[in-house]
Write a structure and sequence with these properties.
Length: 225
């Protein structure tokens, strides 16, 4: 799983469509988009050439060769490095909950499985669950049954939903809930398995589950003790 990443893009809301169009030209059809709000001061915004704090945050799963191509296009075509251009970054995935989920997330991108990354030798993992709107409690109940402490939920809108029919044979709505769960590495597999069994693609929640390695944490010691 070492050559597949979660790409996060943070841009001015008015420029989001330009980025989505570029991504789709590179076969990145499955995107999850949420609204955000920047925290920069007026002085910093003036310095960066920004005229608004309203942001859009887009998440996608990307293969490393696709990222190399996309990065060049972001710099050349959208001038992402220029003031007010935005930011895009990648974080390696450590696991994906099921073959169908992997096929859905990377769709038309080429993928060759490689050796596990040494970055995965971490004490904690971030489990990300993307599910239909309204099923947070079902998902969190499943996660807690396997030892999770809690999670954080944000609302998002999915694009590329039509790909679900091709790879999964299920119909998904565009309104999504994205749940972040930080857990000890040894608890990751039981939690992901519990969510897949109780709230996975065969359930009404239609949850997609994957995880990212966490290199360090603060604020979890008392909870885990």
């Amino acid at each position: 799983m070492s050559n597949i990443y979660m790409m996060t893009t943070i841009v001015d809301r008015k420029k989001l469509n330009n980025y989505l169009e570029l991504y789709q030209k590179n076969n990145l059809y499955v995107m999850f988009v949420s609204l955000g709000h920047g925290t920069a001061t007026n002085e910093i915004m003036d310095y960066l050439g920004l005229d608004t704090n309203d942001k859009a945050v887009a998440f996608s799963i990307i293969e490393d060769q696709t990222w190399i191509t996309v990065k060049k296009q972001l710099e050349r075509d959208l001038k992402i490095d220029a003031p007010g251009g935005g930011i895009a970054f990648t974080v390696p995935l450590s696991s994906v909950g099921g073959k169908k989920t992997l096929q859905y997330l990377i769709e038309s991108q080429d993928y060759i499985k490689e050796e596990e990354s040494t970055l995965q030798n971490t004490n904690h993992e971030l489990i990300i669950v993307i599910a239909e709107h309204g099923y947070t409690e079902l998902i969190m109940d499943a996660a807690r049954d396997a030892g999770a402490y809690g999670g954080t939920v944000i609302h998002a809108k999915g694009t590329g939903i039509e790909a679900a029919d091709k790879f999964m044979g299920v119909t998904l709505s565009s309104e999504k809930e994205v749940i972040y769960i930080v857990t000890k590495t040894e608890q990751k597999n039981p939690i992901m398995k519990s969510i897949m069994e109780k709230a996975g693609l065969e359930s009404k929640a239609k949850a997609v589950v994957f995880s990212l390695p966490v290199t360090d944490t603060a604020g979890l010691r008392l909870i885990e003790d």
